[in-house]
Design brief:
The complex is a heterodimer of chains A (about 450) and B (about 400). Helices cover about 70% and strands about 0% of the residues of chain A. By secondary structure, chain A is mainly alpha-helical. Chain A folds into three domains: about 35-65; about 105-235, no CATH class; about 235-450, Orthogonal Bundle (MetI-like fold). The longest helix of chain A has about 30 residues, at about 355-385. By secondary structure, chain B is α+β, with helices and mostly antiparallel strands. Chain B folds into two domains: about 20-60; about 90-190 and about 255-410, MetI-like (MetI-like fold). In chain B, strand 6 (about 260) and strand 7 form a beta hairpin. Chain B starts with 20 loop residues before the first helix and ends with a helix. Classes of the chains: A mainly alpha (about 450), B alpha+beta (about 400). Chains A and B meet through helix 2, helix 12, helix 13, helix 16 and helix 17 of A and helix 2, helix 4, helix 5, helix 11 and helix 12 of B.
Chain lengths: ~450, ~400
């Protein structure tokens, strides 16, 4: 648009401030008139809805608040205090079990620490001007799980897996240093290190060498330190509660991610064998309920594996859920890839990119970015679906909520724990869905992209 | 690849420097694709072979034979609630049938419930009335952000099981006909005698007559421009004819009302608490999805359509019925059908509260009792896959018709 030259002496048009709306057109009463009582029918609807709300809310309030019992050591005691109220004392008594299951009390800090580390790990993604977000995200998917399993499981680890776990410590430190440096100096750690070692004018890939050396040193240090203490072994059978729900939901999403992307690529492939096998797999799994898949993994996997293979229920549940999530994810990724203009593929191949490079550097970043809100929705779905592992006898949050009612002292305590679980799930999922909607409204993925 | 030699290199036919044959073949797209496909096919076949040998070795070790002969052996376990007569001595094939029928019944009722409730809530969400739309929105948010399984378990353990004992049954609708207690929900059972088929035929005849009246009214409207009022007559025929026949044939229908006998109810039809829990859980859960779908579908119809219809003098309900809804349905129906499919799949959650649907009876109980896991799992998979295929077929047919219709209407 051409610039309009304005002389300082020209009169400038300033509109008069608009007058406030007439008294009858604003304020609370007007709102009531236009939104609740604008016609005879609407008045009736409003009153009926109010009455229905009252007839549900009033007894519920009496049960949940007025008559509720907050302190008791058994359900009988709750009844003795007040027959008609909720026995929140039971929920309070079992609260820690709902969060951690039968995880030993003295070791629960490890579960907490694992969660805090994950949040710490992911935090740079939301910070502005951080240039190593791709590394942060990739390492979160590939490296963090080892560290988490090391923490949660404990026990004596051989050197190589231990080194993998400690690589996590190294990456956490390096990622944060790099993020802080790139926020303050606009150059990340790799570039700084490269500068110090005189690699700045060399090929960019040489910047990798000092980073690898740094990771090697840090990992070695961490391994040495890690030998100075041993975490008591906590078998996966005693993981439980919200902690287990999170472990399953997050790790099955992580496992599902690469599988889903590969399946999506396979389904869009030109090669008939690849396309047909991927499509068949996706469609067959999609046609089945998750329960079937979980039972299949529990019942059939031992039959399909060599005799004597040891099975871990957590592992089996993860396999089932990951496959289930992966096929749905594949469809999400596929639709994301379909939304990318043909020109992007053509431009990439004109630049001489092969299939994998074009996919990794051009197509996937854009597809994933546009699909981020849908991915959030899928994670919520996955978190909700995790409750199904209680059907195959695992003690996730729902499993624990049912356990408390079977305890002799709290026999029949079902309503209160289930209500508590509902509220907990609602809070978790609702805020995540708000975040998803926020991303959708902004029209892009995580700030600055992946 | 970069050569630093300065001599001019001869180019091959495609304008590229010559390469060693092996390298060229490796970079040939066609060769590559064949290699990759062969490799994948080999991997899949090897995996199948590996798993197959494992299975046969494992089955041999426990002395099991594969095959579907087991279907005709006696099941040996009871099923708490069946639609068709069943006893423990019946065959496993019948167990499969019982499971499918139970799954289909609970799914069908849940589909009806979810669709009716969801449509209502979806329309409520669009209401100008703040309270009504907020209540609908709160419903959708609460339901969608909590797991379906948790809701079903809550309906079961938190509501239906805690109802009073049969002696203190609650009387639904206050008619004395629909008692509900912790053993389930009861309703009168119709017992038709000989001539009842006359009434049924009368009903179908009346429906045909009503359709004919509708055709006639449409014809009149096209010819004269005025639509005759026929709704009262249609209702009169549909209700009147069967009722008249009912009395003429001497009331050939008896009701067996559920009554308290000893500690339990007897007579009538009954639905166990687990059934009710699945029904309510699924209906309420999927109603939220249906509501969102209906809202989105109606909002997707451009505003101008409704405004234009209003400008043409259509009354609000006709604007909705003749202009907005037909267009909204085009976007709503395909997704609605996939929600229905989801209901059928999610009815499998009933296994958590022990309602005897397909998975409970055929995948859990019967595998625990008699093995044959592979065949049974395959049969369960076959059921769900064929349901999905049928639904996909319906969807495709609908979309094709929609496209054809769109072209016809210009």
């Amino acid at each position: 648009m051409a610039d309009v030259v304005t002389k300082s002496s020209d009169p400038v048009f300033t509109p008069m401030p608009s007058r406030p709306a007439p008294v009858g057109q604003r304020g609370v009463i007007h709102w009531f008139k236009t939104r609740l009582f604008y016609s005879p029918a609407s008045t009736i609807f409003t009153l009926v809805t109010l009455y229905l709300l009252y007839s549900i809310a009033a007894p519920f309030y009496d049960w949940a608040v007025t008559n509720a019992v907050w302190e008791a050591s058994t359900r009988r005691e709750c009844f003795d205090k007040n027959m008609n109220g909720a026995c929140w004392a039971g929920v309070i008594h079992w609260f820690d079990s709902y969060l951690y299951g039968r995880f030993p009390v003295s070791e629960r800090w490890r579960a907490n620490l694992g969660g805090i580390l994950l949040i710490l790990w992911a935090l740079p993604i939301w910070l502005p001007r951080v240039s190593n977000k791709a590394t942060v995200l990739t390492t979160m998917v590939v490296v963090y799980p080892f560290l988490a399993v090391f923490l949660f499981l404990g026990g004596d680890w051989p050197l190589v897996p231990r080194a993998f776990a400690m690589l996590g410590v190294s990456f956490l430190i390096v990622n944060w240093c790099s993020a802080i440096l790139s926020m303050t100096t606009a150059r990340n750690l790799a570039q700084h290190l490269g500068g110090w070692f005189g690699l700045a004018d060399k090929h960019p890939s040489t910047l990798l060498y000092p980073m690898v050396a740094l990771h090697a040193v840090l990992t070695a240090l961490a391994v040495v330190v890690s030998y100075s203490f041993t975490l008591p072994y906590v078998e996966t059978g005693s993981w439980g509660g919200l902690f287990l729900t999170f472990v399953i939901a997050i790790s099955s999403s992580l496992f599902a991610f690469p599988i889903g992307i590969l399946l999506a690529l396979g389904r869009r492939s030109d090669m008939p064998v690849v396309r047909i096998s991927c499509t068949t797999f996706i469609e067959v799994v999609r046609s089945m309920p998750l329960v079937t898949l979980l039972f299949m993994v529990i019942v059939l996997l031992p039959l399909f594996m060599p005799a004597g293979t040891q099975f871990n229920k957590l592992m089996q549940a993860l396999i089932g859920l990951s496959l289930f999530t992966a096929v749905y994810l594949a469809e999400v990724v596929r639709s994301g890839m379909q939304a990318i203009p043909e020109g992007q593929y053509e431009a990439a191949s004109a630049l001489g990119f092969g299939y994998w490079r074009a996919t990794y550097l051009v197509i996937m970043p854009q597809a994933l970015k546009t699909m981020t809100p849908v991915l959030v929705t899928h994670f919520i779905g996955n978190l909700k679906d995790t409750t199904l592992v209680s059907i195959i006898g695992m003690y996730d949050l729902l499993g624990m909520l049912n356990v408390s009612g079977q305890n002799p002292e709290w026999n029949g305590l079902y309503q209160e724990p289930l209500l508590f679980g509902t509220v907990l799930f609602f809070v978790l999922c609702y805020f995540m869905s708000l975040y998803g909607r926020h991303l959708e409204k902004r029209g892009s993925g995580v700030s600055g992209g992946i | 690849m970069n050569t630093n030699t300065l001599e001019p290199t001869a180019l091959d036919g495609r304008g590229r420097p010559p390469q060693r044959d092996t390298v060229r073949y490796f970079y040939d797209k066609k060769v590559r694709s064949i290699v990759v496909q062969l490799a994948l096919a080999t991997c899949i076949l090897l995996a199948i072979y590996y798993l197959g040998t494992n299975v046969s070795r494992n089955l041999n070790a426990i002395g099991m034979v594969t095959g579907f002969d087991f279907l005709w052996s006696a099941a040996g376990f009871d099923i708490s609630w069946t639609l068709i007569p069943y006893s423990a001595s019946d065959s496993l094939a019948r167990v499969y049938l019982v499971g499918i029928l139970n799954t289909l019944l609970v799914s069908a009722l849940s589909i009806v419930g979810a669709t009716v409730m969801g449509t209502l809530i979806g329309i409520m969400r669009l209401s100008r009335n703040w309270l009504v739309s907020t209540v609908a929105r709160a419903y959708v948010e609460i339901i969608r952000n909590t797991p379906a399984l948790l809701q079903i378990v809550f309906w079961f353990g938190g509501i239906f099981v805690l109802l009073p004992k049969p002696k203190q049954s609650l009387d639904l609708f206050g008619l004395g006909l629909f008692p509900i207690n912790n053993r389930g929900f009861y309703m009168p059972r119709p017992i038709a005698s000989d001539l009842f088929w006359v009434c049924v035929c009368g009903f179908f005849l009346a429906v045909l007559a009503a359709i004919a009246m509708g055709r006639f009214a449409k014809h009149r409207q096209l010819v004269t421009g005025k639509r005759p009022v026929i709704l009262p007559y249609q209702l009169l025929v549909i209700v009147g004819l069967p009722v008249a026949l009912f009395y003429l044939t001497g009331k050939p229908l008896d009701w067996q009302v559920p009554e308290l006998k000893g500690f339990n109810m007897a007579g009538g039809w009954s639905l166990p608490p687990a059934f009710l829990a699945v029904l309510c859980g699924l209906s309420f859960y999927q109603a939220a999805s249906v509501a969102e779908l209906v809202r989105a579908g109606i909002q997707a119809v451009p505003r101008g359509q409704a405004e234009a219809a209003t400008a043409l003098g259509f009354k609000p309900n006709r604007v909705m019925r003749l202009v907005v809804l037909p267009q909204a349905l085009r976007t709503i129906i395909p997704s609605l059908i996939s929600i229905w499919l989801n209901v059928i799949k999610e009815s499998s959650l009933a296994v958590a509260i022990g309602f005897p649907e397909l998975i409970t009876v055929f995948m859990v109980t019967s595998i625990e009792q008699g093995g044959h896991a592979i065949e049974k799992v395959a049969m369960v998979m076959a059921f769900y896959t064929s349901v999905s295929l049928i639904v996909a077929g319906i969807l495709n047919a609908y979309n094709r018709r929609l496209l054809a219709g769109g072209r016809r209407n210009g």
